[in-house]
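Recap from last week: sequence in, structure out.
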Amino acid sequence: MKQSVTVTKTNDLKLGGVLKATLYKFKLKTPKFDIKTILKKVLIPTLSILVFIGLWYAGSKALFNTEANYKIEKALADQGKEAADAMATCIASGDVSCQPNTLPSPAQVWESFKTLIKDHQVISADKLAFKEKTAVLNEKRIAQGKDPITYTGRPSFVDQIFTSLKTVFAGFLLALLIAVPIGIIIGLSETLRNSFNWLIQIFKPVSPVVWLLLVFMIVKTMTKDSNQDSAFIISFISVGLCSMWATLVNTAMGVSSVDKDYINVAKVLKLGPLQKVFKVILPSSLPLIFTGLRITLSVAWMVLIAIELLAQSPGLGSFVWEEFQNGAIDSNSKIIVAMFIIGIIGFLLDRIMLTIQNMVSFNKNEIA
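Predicted structure tokens:
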């Protein structure tokens, strides 16, 4: 009986030890509830957003009151007390005809965003109805060798976003096709780098407006046309030429800084010139090349708005300029909406390029 009790106690001790060991391992694997991490990654960023919105609201309210007081005082000076009282009553009532046109509040911007989305839905429905209405006629025109009838109504805000994205990616692709091959060629030769360095240093800081005018001269001379297609061509070529320099410089730097041991190994293996470039030099240069491409894409998106504005290409630049000229009571709100959309898309494009850069980089730590 005593032996049975002793065995039971021994088994209980062993079982307890196993349970403790299991719990200890589980504790090690279970992530700790770190309040500092939550503060740094969630609460503080959220608080910064709330502070930003609060300051924005306070600033817009102050500017609204300043403009309202000015309008009332001007009515008092020009037309008398009755006119001033009528102006004050009109402003207080929210009547669109007398509201101060100044920095919009966050709520006004949100309403304008919803309005733009509704407009897009209406325009999309109109496009679909037009396509269905002209489907039979367009089939006959195409069969006769004629161009189909296309929708010529105004583009929606979402359509203009996609036009800008199409333009910036076309410009980015052009920059890549020009800058990477030239960067490899001049990176392989110190003589070529010294020979073309003056050209890079002169053209790299040239304003996008100047590039636009130069491309405009060439494209207009070659196409003899002023339609929307030529505006797109002018825009994406200007974007590509203006933004390609970071990729060109980084590619040349990456190629010229390839470890000499790799070059010697290529010689030992008797690799041809193209084999040496594609199997040794390019893989070693990819991190720097992608750093240049990341900068190029950011610059391309940044200069796109000004180029679209001047080239009259139907993108976000054109949208901002048209709203500025429109001068409607909600124009300022729509411009702020466009500003946020431009910033968010620019951020997302940079994150995409950063992800690709980290994938090809030898250093797997995230590059900020």
